[in-house]
Amino acid sequence: MKTFGSIFFVNFYMDKLEAVQRVLRFSESVRNWCEKEERIFFDDFDSENVMDYDTGGRGELADTIIVKGIEEGFIDEGDLD
């Protein structure tokens, strides 16, 4: 997986939004953490805000969700470029 700062570059196999959605769909622990600690829900993510690192964007949170998904085995690192 390539990173530039905290930005993940996700290839055509899985875009960043799809990766976030997959983790939130299948990882109960990440979904609960996101909903309870961050107060952000599945439907709050879209293709624009997962790439937005400015105030109000979800870029850093999306990166954290992807990392947690890899650690828990819900995303294979080979799916990401």
End-to-end separation = 5 Å
- Strands of the widest sheet, in order across it, are 1-2
Largest sheet: 2 strands, antiparallel
Supply the number of structural domains.
Answer: 1
Q: For the residues shown, what is the average pLDDT?
A: 85
Q: Provide the gyration radius in Å.
A: 11 Å
What structural class should be given to the helix and strand makeup? mainly alpha
Put simply, the count of helices is: 3
Order of helices and strands: EEHHH
Q: Based on DSSP secondary structure assignment, what is the total number of beta strands?
A: 2
- Sum up the overall morphology in one term: globular
- Provide the low-confidence segments as ranges: none
* Beta-strand percentage range: 5-15%
**Helical coverage, percent range:** 40-55%
Describe the protein:
- With 81 residues, this protein is mainly alpha-helical.
- It has one domain.
- The chain has a two-stranded antiparallel sheet with strand order 1-2.
- β1 and β2 form a beta hairpin.
Looking at this protein, list some descriptive labels.
7% strand, mainly alpha, globular, 43% helix, 81 residues, two-stranded antiparallel sheet
Quick overview:
The model has no long low-confidence stretch (mean pLDDT 85). Helix 1 packs across helix 3.
Topology:
Elements: E1 2-4, E2 7-9, H1 16-26, H2 28-37, H3 59-72
Antiparallel strand pairs: 1-2
Helix pairs in contact: 1-2, 1-3
